[in-house]
Design a protein that fits this description.
The protein has about 130 residues and is mainly beta. The protein contains no helices and eleven strands. The N and C termini lie far apart (about 40 Å).
């Protein structure tokens, strides 16, 4: 079992930056597919960024590519999401998720992940 805890959310003006952290406990995240998802009010949860199982590949939602960067610190068992040039449309609750069994075609599907954090709110004001 993996436990995930997100932090780093907050209120920021458009154009600003935030760095989200996802700290894992219980097991190492090595060998897990790890993803960041977000859910805005009244909308479906969507994939934002993620690592492949080996950690060698990264994937991004088109609308955040070039603005957001996913990274990891294996020694701290932590995955980060650096978010720059934030826009009001980025406002959402951001979740970290992990799973050991996914194939590449499932990486962007939130229903495919077994382990989730509690989420952290990101609000971008215009």
């Amino acid at each position: 079992q993996v436990q995930l805890v997100e932090s780093g959310g907050g209120l920021v003006q458009a154009g600003g930056s935030l760095r989200l952290s996802c700290v894992a406990s219980g097991r190492t995240l090595r060998g897990y597919v790890v993803g960041w998802f977000r859910q805005a009010a009244g909308k479906e949860r969507e994939f934002v960024a993620g690592f492949s199982r080996t950690g060698g590949y990264t994937y991004y939602l088109d609308s955040v590519r070039g603005r957001f960067t996913i990274s990891r610190d294996n020694a701290k068992n932590t995955v980060y999401l650096q978010m720059n040039s934030l826009k009001p449309d980025d406002t959402a609750v951001y979740y970290c998720a992990a799973d050991q069994k996914l194939i590449q075609s499932e990486y962007r599907r939130h229903t495919a992940y077994d382990y989730w954090g509690q989420g952290t709110q990101v609000t971008v004001s215009s």
